[in-house]
Specification:
Radius of gyration: 29 Å
Shape: globular
Strand order of the largest sheet: 1-2-3-6
Number of strands: 6
Structural class: mainly alpha
Largest sheet: 4 strands, antiparallel
Strand content: 5-15%
Order of helices and strands: HHHHEEEEHHEEHHHHH
Helix content: 55-70%
Length: about 400
């Protein structure tokens, strides 16, 4: 009699032979080691601080700072708190990073494309810039740029005056300062909404053209949205007044000042990072198949049109990941501002540390701020990289 073997469940595997169970066990073991090491570190730190009589905690953030900051994007004085001083440094660092990233991107793309130029002089000058800037320490470049700027500016008593509203001397460039008045909130809201509506209109028109084949004239719509801004400005009663800088006994007062330290820092970071971005752009363009150039030439496209419409969009998929690293480096390199006296976050954090002695807390806040800025930059660039990636059908 033949026995039939019925389908049954697979045999059970011992838990110590289960790959998933082993992986989970090892991960938990590593996590316990990490948490244990962190607990030991924190306990030892707190014990040593207590033994030395150093107060711990973040209560010092509410105490008066007692020092001035040369450039602040928000209201600040020596009577403001340490916490507000941190905020001032944070905003200054964001300003430097944002302006520096924009300038570095422009310089990098320009020089990267110039290195591939058929003009010998253009490509040689671009190569000379890249090889020179990349091989000189950033700190030396910052000091050199700062020295050149300071020695090029006139003294305070010899200030350059333009239209009685702009002053220039060794203290910086003094510009008129806009002071919001009643109705400014309505005006700025309308302006932001109008500017944000423009890309949505362009995207809607492009989608309709693809779906129906009918072109949509977006120029009147865009001009109408832009016209809303000045119209709202006058309807709300021109809700801005101006504080013009005036020459004082020793230096100008009033207005808003662009410090030489800020200009030197931004230029130094942009020029230095732009050299690395230039090489990234050059390698990204060279990564595009030569057949793309030949196909574009057969269609009668010029070299500039080929770069703008065909090569660069494909090269961006190679350029964006390493370019993200350069943006992160620029943000972190802004901490070298302490060498030329610009009040960025790292510089202000050092001053607070010297005055309070709260080294652990100040370093923790500093690390958290730079980590946050880096993660935000990485998230945005990863989002943009995902949008530029090829979509398989």
């Amino acid at each position: 009699m033949r026995s039939t073997i019925s389908a049954s469940e697979p045999p059970r595997v011992a838990i110590y032979n289960d790959p998933r169970a082993r992986a989970l066990f090892y991960q938990l073991l590593v996590l316990l080691f990490v948490l244990g090491g962190a607990a030991i570190l924190v306990t030892n730190t707190m014990t040593n601080l207590a033994r030395l009589g150093v107060a711990s905690g973040f209560g010092f953030l509410g105490r008066p700072a007692g020092f001035d900051i040369g450039q602040a994007m928000i209201d600040y004085s020596s009577s403001s708190s340490f916490g507000r001083a941190f905020i001032v440094g944070f905003l200054n660092t964001i300003l430097v990073a944002a302006v520096g990233i924009v300038l570095a991107t422009i310089i990098g793309f320009t020089m990267g494309i110039a290195r591939l130029s058929h003009n010998w002089l253009v490509s040689t000058l671009a190569s000379l810039y890249v090889e020179t800037v990349r091989n000189i320490p950033l700190l030396l470049q910052l000091l050199l740029i700062y020295a050149i700027i300071i020695h090029s500016l006139p003294q305070a008593r010899e200030s350059v005056v333009v239209l009685d509203s702009v002053l220039l001397n060794t203290s910086g460039l003094f510009l008129p300062r806009a002071l919001p008045q009643a109705g400014f909130g309505v005006f700025i809201t309308v302006a932001i909404l109008a500017l944000l509506a423009i890309p949505f209109v362009l995207r809607w028109a492009a989608r309709k053209r693809v779906l129906t084949g009918q072109p949509v004239h977006t120029l009147p719509i865009v001009l109408g949205l832009l016209a809303l801004i000045p119209i709202c400005f006058f309807v709300t009663g021109q809700p801005l007044s101006w504080d013009f800088p005036k020459m004082g006994t020793f230096r100008p007062s009033g207005g808003v000042v662009v410090q030489p330290e800020f200009v030197a820092l931004v230029l130094g970071l942009a020029v230095y990072t732009g050299a690395f971005i230039a090489e990234i752009v050059r390698s990204g363009i060279l990564a595009v198949s030569k057949g793309q150039w030949e196909a574009a030439g057969s269609l009668g496209l010029s070299r500039g049109q080929t770069l703008r419409l065909i090569v660069v969009p494909q090269a961006l998929r190679v350029i964006i990941p390493p370019q993200t690293n350069q943006y992160l480096n620029l943000t972190k390199n802004s901490s070298l501002a302490v060498a030329i006296g610009y009040p960025d976050f790292f510089n202000i954090a050092g001053t607070i540390n010297n005055q309070t002695g709260q080294a652990v807390e100040v370093v923790a806040i500093t690390m958290g701020v730079y980590l946050t800025l880096s993660l935000i930059t990485s998230y945005f660039m990863n989002w943009y990289n995902a949008r530029m990636a090829l979509v398989e059908r």
